[in-house]
Structures are given as structure tokens and as C-alpha cells.
Amino acid sequence: MKHLLLTILLIGFQQTSAQVFDKETIKNFDNDEKRINLVILSEGYKTSELPQFRIDAVSFTNALFSQSPFKEYANYFNVHIIKVPSNESGADHPGTGIDVTEPKTPIKIVDTYFNATFDSYGYHRLLYYEIDGNAANNTQAKIYNVLADNFPTYDQGLILVNSTVYGGSGGEFPMASKGVENGVSATEVAIHELGHSFANLKDEYFPLDEIYFNEAINMTQESNPSFIKWKNWLNGNGIGIYKYYTTGYAANWYRPHQACKMRYLGYPFCSVCKEGIIEKIHSLVSPIESYTPVSNTINSPSFPIDFHLELIKPNPNTLKSKWTLNASDFANDVDEVSILETDLNTGMNTLTVAVNDATGFLKVDNHDSFHVYTVTWTIDNSALGVKDITSEIINYNIAMYPNPSSTFVNFKFESNHDTRLKVDILSLDGKKIKTISINNYQTNEVDISNLSTGIYLTNFYSRNALIASKKLVKN
Predict the structure, then answer these.
(1) Are 462 and 419 a contacting pair, CB within 8 Å?
(2) What is the mean pLDDT of each run of 10 residues along the chain (475 residues)?
């Protein structure tokens, strides 16, 4: 889960003396290993101004988690700050912007730790740590060093700049000032840029260069409503198929919304982008924080035996759980079950719980993957009672594509356990049409050309326990 800096990168920096700065956690749910760690670095704050940096970082954090879907999934994040002092306040204003009449703001050069500079690439509002991208100051290496020395297991870094002039930039480490322009705070720049660096979202305005056009969650060259990535969202919440521009290269590319935060600051994320952010959250963090019993913690247990999940719940809670005992349904949507002696067979028994997110923010039938998280307990029940209980947790990232399809469907899954899944394709009346077996990290192509047009169910089983069920559309 963690964005641990590569060993080779650390080796490359090892000759630089470590610089350890004061750190503070401003939003915490106890376990960093079970959370997404957002780390905010200060820039242009003198030592005497670092208390203000904390206030500004808290203000940004509150703004971020007041907006969907970060608001609903706030429990999945911890936020930490690293108090990096600068020798002088603010950011550079070289007065080299080509999009304004200079000097737009007073020209000045200040001594700051990360070299934050307005007028980068000739654009006044573009506040970046290298004015032209030539890395003359090797600032990105300094950012890596600070994170490596102070919080190497970060998931996302962000830089807040002590300037009241409106500006910011994206990239691996988004940067934003404290400025406000036309009623919009530069905080909105940082949240927009997190859409890029955290969730791999694309801009929904007309990018300045063709290199910024790529197939992505919210950008595509596909215009057929039956096949477009966001087909399940069409004609609701303002989702459509909108050209980036009416002429030229951009006329071949489409976005899902006309007023998403990825197009205009001050607006909410559209439904497609919210879905992409949540999918990213689930790819980084399991909703299963812990469970009991764990292996070797029960000796000669007495009945009933309690099995418990501790979940990281969205707000409102949209997690669903399905408990299966020896391949038979046992309970649904509860965090704890009790097993009686009469529930068990003599010999080995298997209790599995599968957890997934049923939020209305997700309509993932048209996406490449969906996430399922399971805990399996193996219960050794002899004639003399339970001898042993062992457990393991397994995460699944399952792909079923293309969907819909008229000819072939590919099935693939990735898991942290070397296991195998069984997939049943069923008609809506429950008749089994096909059964296939798929191995970890292998893709199986299944011919569905002989199936009648319509909707089918695909059930995914691990060790005979149903862990997921999705619709398959045959064109």
C-alpha cells in the first residue's frame, strides 16, 4: 500500500546528510499502515511562521475532507505535516509571465527551501518548484530527501506555500499557495491536482498540448454510448459524452461532464471522477482493519466462538459483508458472528467473510476491475472439540472486460495469495451456462458468442465461498 521510496533512490541520496524536521499528525485513525498517508510539506514559512503553517495545513485538510468523495471516505486517510523552515517568507516572483502584463505582482526573489516560483513556464499563476522544468536546482531530489528522511512510507505528498498570491501546480507533488482569486481559493488548485497525482484523473478542460491526451478514467476517444467507460453514468448527474473541442486533435477526445472540478475550480467532482477516486482508495487500503480470532490465539475454545471484523467504514457506511460456513450462507452485513458446536462438521470447517463496498458512488460494471476483501478461518473440529483455528486475509482485484461484449470476455484477477477462483456464468433464472477456473495473474478469454443477447450473472468463488457477483451484458 505504501509509496515507499525505491531503494535505488535512497541509495542515490545516501551521501546527502539526513535532515530531520519536526513532524506532526493533524488527522489520525491510529494505524498508518492501514491508512492512506497524506503528507503536507511547508514551503516559504520561516521558523517563526511554522505555527501558521500548521493552521494553514489544518484549513486545507478541512477543505479537502468537506468535499465528496473525500468526505465520505475520510476514515481511510491520515494526514501528517513536515515543518520544513525556509530562510525567507513567500515565493519567487521573477516577473516573467507571458500571459499577464508584468509586473502583475511585485518582483522579488526569496530564499525558500523548495524554490517555489510563480511565472513558471511563462504562466503567472503557475507556482512550481522549477521555473522551466530544467531542474537546475534539483528541487525534486530535495523533496524526495525530505520524505525519505521524515516519512518514507507516504502515499501522497503535497506542498503548501506561504504566499497570498493565487497559484499552484500539479505533478507528482502538487503545490498551492494561500491565495484567493475571483472568490476561489488556491486550495481548490491543490484538490484538483490531487485528482491527477492521487487518482490519475485527467483535465477536462482543453489541455495545452496533445501529450496530455490519453485514455483514462475521465478521458477517452470512444464515443459509442454502449462502450464508453462511463456508460453506466450516462444521462444522470450531468454525465454525457462531450468533445474537448470542435476542431483539431481535441475534437477526437471526450470528457464526461461540463462542470467537474477537473475542468473548473470551485465545482464538485463529477460522478465519474468520484468513482475513480474511490476505486483508487480501495486499491490502496483494505476496509478490513483487523479481525479476531487470528491464528494460534485460541486454545481449546468453548462454544459459542465469536468471529469479529473491525472495518474502516465510510460515512455513511456502505460496506456489505457475506459470511459463508462450509460453502453455505451463514450471515449477511454484520461485523460479528457466533459459531455453535452444532454449526460445525466433524473435521475441517471453513468460515469465510467477503467484504465489498456497495456505495452508490460506484457503478463499476463498466470498469476494468472491482475489489473484494476476504478473511477465511479454518476450524479443526474433532470429536473432542475444536483443536485449532487458523486464519488468513486475502484481497482480490478482479477484472472482467470488455463488458458489454458480443464475442469474448476476459477474466483476470490479482491477489496477495496464490489461489484460484471459480467463475460461474448464469442466466437470470439461475441456470448455469459456463464454469471456468482462473489462476492468479493469468487472463482467461471466454467465448460468449453463442449466448443469447441479454444480461447474465457472473459469480466468483474462492474455496467454494461466493465472494463477488457481477452483471455481464451480452450484445
Answers:
(1) yes
(2) 42 58 93 94 98 97 97 98 98 94 94 95 90 71 95 96 95 93 92 95 86 93 92 95 93 96 96 96 94 78 91 97 96 97 94 96 78 94 83 92 90 88 94 94 94 94 90 91
Going from the N-terminus, what domains does the chain have, and what CATH number goes with each? 7-197 (3.40.390.10), 210-282 (no CATH), 286-474 (2.60.40.3080)
Express each pLDDT in 9-57 by its tens digit: 433 444 456 799 999 999 998 789 999 999 999 999 999 999 999 999 9
* Amino acid letter, 157: G
Which residues 6+ apart lie within 8 Å of 98 measured at CB?
122, 123
pLDDT digits (tens, 9 = 90+) for 166-197: 999 988 999 999 999 999 999 999 999 999 99
CA nearest to 173, candidates 198, 145, 208, 138: 198
Give the dihedral sign, CA 43/47/49/51: positive
Per-residue three-class SS string for the chain? CCCCCCHHHHHHHCCCCCCCCEEEEEECCCCHHHCEEEEEEEECCCHHHHHHHHHHHHHHHHHHCCCCCCCCCHHHEEEEEEECCCCCCCCEECCCCCCCCCCCCCCECCCCCCCCECCHHHCCCECECCCCCCCCCCHHHHHHHHHHHHCCCCCEEEEEECCCCCCEECCCCCEECCCEECCEECHHHHHHHHHHHCCCCCCCCCCCCHHHCCCECCEECCCCCCCCCCHHHCCCCCCCCEECCCCCHHHHCEECCCCCCCCCCCCCCCHHHHHHHHHHHHHHCCCEEEEECCCCCCCCCCCCEEEEEEECCCCCCCEEEEEEECCEEEEECCCEEEECHHHCCCEEEEEEEEEEECCCCCCHHHCCEEEEEEEEEEEEEECCEEEEEEEEEEEEEEEEECCCECCEEEEEEEECCCCEEEEEEECCCCCEEEEEEEECCCEEEEECCCCCCEEEEEEEEECCEEEEEEEEEEC
- Residue 17 pLDDT: 65
Q: Helix 50-64 crosses helix 187-197 at what angle (to 10 degrees)?
A: 60
